[in-house]
Automatic annotation (TrEMBL):
Main location: plastid
Subcellular location: Plastid, Chloroplast
Cross-referenced PANTHER family: PTHR43314
Keyword Electron transport listed: yes
Protein name per UniProt: Ferredoxin--NADP reductase, chloroplastic
Enzyme class label: oxidoreductase
Entry EC number(s): 1.18.1.2
Reported cofactor(s): FAD
């Protein structure tokens, strides 16, 4: 629905750093698709709103969607660095951040629990989209008494400006790792994932030890704003892609006007397990020529041969177009559990052979051209 005048467009209000406000919104406070406004807080007093509005909201126009507003971001100095920040804080001297919010992302029928965790780093731990933070959970390493736990790496799920567009927070997408005894079927808390449970159980105000940022392989190449980016995720592997997509479609980044194609494939168990679906659905509505989104729901959909629909089955459905786009210079990214890659590689190999191509040669060319980006864990 196009708006005839800017005065009719509700403004997006980034929320300030008062952690007493409920500042994060997902399934319960859906982004409004009718009004095309980004609402990032369910209760907001007018004093905060007015002071933030004066200097934080920027409207950027795109050719196709002249009425889709973008959100103002600061500090724009985060665009100045020519190289990504790396290893600003090491394992022996981590940065102490503060938990802002922990929100359950999935519905009641999702197997397991996935949380969106916003951490305040005060602007002291800058990062770029596609990088990771290391988290050191509290307590002692059982394998090395007297020593802290090992660092766990988590892909960052926000842009460099964070979910409140002020450059002071980072968000993580964390699935709680729970161990069930195969004989009794009961949960064994002694074998649960230490770090994921610490993060999912944390409360606003809790402290968290952070290292990093790290990683260069998943950085978003921005030299060509009209490039094609094909993103393939399973589960929490969607984290870096959420950052990319917010940068492309939500934020008013003066130095990066995206006019290419972002194509996301997301594999999860069922509809209740979809992550950030409201956000991605809104991009589909606002930027139909620049965003495509294909979901693979393994417990709800069937593939062509009647089996469960995995993300590689969706890739196979669109394989001709994917290969053509790769031949045209598209970037392809994979993020998620490492078990996703063999099935995907087999599918790509089979498709290449059908096309009379050698997959090994094609893969080595994609790597050489820096079009192939993989981060699995």
């Amino acid at each position: 629905m196009a708006h005839s005048a800017l005065s009719q467009v509700p403004v997006a209000v980034p929320i300030n750093s008062d952690t007493s406000l409920p500042r994060f919104v997902f399934k319960n406070n859906n982004v409004s698709l009718q009004t095309k406004s980004w609402t990032l807080g369910s209760s907001l007093d007018s004093k905060i709103a007015n002071s933030r509005l004066r200097n934080r909201f920027v409207v950027c126009m795109s050719v196709q969607q002249a009425s889709t507003p973008k959100v103002g971001i600061s500090p724009l100095s985060l665009e100045d660095a020519k190289e990504p920040p790396l290893h600003l804080f090491k394992n022996k001297e981590p940065y102490t951040g503060t938990i802002v919010s922990v929100e359950r992302l999935v519905g009641p029928k999702a197997p397991g629990e996935t949380c969106h965790i916003v951490i305040d780093h005060g602007g002291n731990l800058p990062y770029w989209e596609g990088q990771s933070y290391g988290i050191i959970p509290p307590g002692e390493n059982p394998k090395k008494p007297g020593n802290p736990h090992n660092v766990r790496l988590y892909s960052i799920a926000s842009t460099r400006y964070g979910d409140f567009f002020d450059g002071k927070t980072a968000s993580l997408c964390v699935r709680r790792a729970v161990y069930y005894d195969p004989e009794t079927g009961k949960e064994d808390p002694s074998k649960n994932g230490v770090c994921s449970n610490f993060l999912c159980d944390s409360k606003p105000g809790d402290k968290v030890q952070i290292t990093g940022p790290s990683g260069k392989i998943m950085l978003l190449p921005e030299d060509d704003p009209n490039a094609t980016h094909i993103m393939i995720a399973t589960g929490t592997g969607v984290a870096p892609f959420r950052g990319y997509l917010r940068r492309m479609f939500m934020e008013g980044v003066p130095t990066f006007k995206f006019g290419g194609l972002a194509w996301l494939f997301l594999g999860v168990a069922n509809s209740d397990s979809l992550l950030y679906d409201d956000e991605f659905s809104k991009y589909l509505q606002d930027y139909p020529d620049n965003f495509r989104f294909d979901r693979a729901l393994s417990r709800e959909q069937k593939n062509r041969s009647g089996g469960k629909m995995y993300v590689q089955d969706k890739i196979e459905e669109y394989s001709d177009e994917i290969f053509k786009r790769l031949d045209g210079g598209a970037h392809i990214y994979f993020c998620g559990l490492k078990g996703m890659m063999p099935g995907i590689q087999e599918t790509l190999k089979r498709v290449a052979e059908k096309r009379g191509e050698s997959w090994d040669e094609k893969l080595s060319q994609l790597k050489k051209n820096k079009q192939w980006h993989v981060e699995v864990y």
